[in-house]
Design goal:
This protein has one helix and ten strands; from the N terminus they run H-E-E-E-E-E-E-E-E-E-E. The chain is mainly beta. The longest helix is centred in the N-terminal third of the chain and has 25 residues.
Length: 174
């Protein structure tokens, strides 16, 4: 009887220790810029944007954290990707069906450059090569009424927009 009780207690302690170790391993802190995906339809085309979503955290974003007149990965961590399953036009210019790295060049003037780049195997935004650009278009930014803490992409029947801090970058798609 005593031997059975000791075995039961030892087994219980062993299982509790294993369980606590398993729980402790699952409590990783959330990433500062978690991965996100926006998917939607514009006409017959399905658009998918994969990005990482940084937060403002009280920082000066445009002209501060993200410098003007420099190619930016349009998200955090690795390069943002844009995919369309049909040929489309973006800001009135043709973009063939396919997957692209998506970059922006923020400009103080309020007219930014959006870039769809063919080099999708390059997930390091610092290896950007202009020679691989499929399409570049100019985009007039819009002011947001309220602060958008986390960077988000929104897709609707007129196109898509990046929204972050007090800025919206809307791209017309047909």
């Amino acid at each position: 009887m005593m031997r059975t009780t000791i075995k039961s207690i030892a087994t219980l302690l062993f299982v509790a220790t294993i369980s606590l170790n398993a729980v402790a391993q699952d409590t990783k802190p959330a990433p500062a810029s978690p991965p996100a995906t926006a998917t939607g339809k514009v006409g017959a085309a399905t658009l998918t944007i994969n990005y990482s979503s940084p937060a403002v955290k009280g920082r000066a974003i445009w002209g501060g954290l993200e410098k003007y007149d420099k190619v930016w990965r349009a998200g955090a961590n690795k390069t943002t990707t844009f995919e369309t399953d049909k040929d489309i036009t973006v800001q009135g210019k043709k973009l063939p069906a396919g997957k692209y790295n998506f970059f922006l060049i923020p400009k103080e003037s309020g007219t930014w450059t959006a870039i769809f780049n063919n080099e999708v195997t390059n997930t390091n935004p610092f290896n950007y090569k202009e020679a691989e650009d499929q399409l570049r278009v100019d985009v007039k930014i819009k002011a947001l009424k309220e602060n958008q803490e986390r960077l988000v992409y929104k897709i609707d029947n007129k196109g898509f927009a990046l929204e972050w801090e007090k800025v919206s970058v809307p791209l017309a798609v047909k």
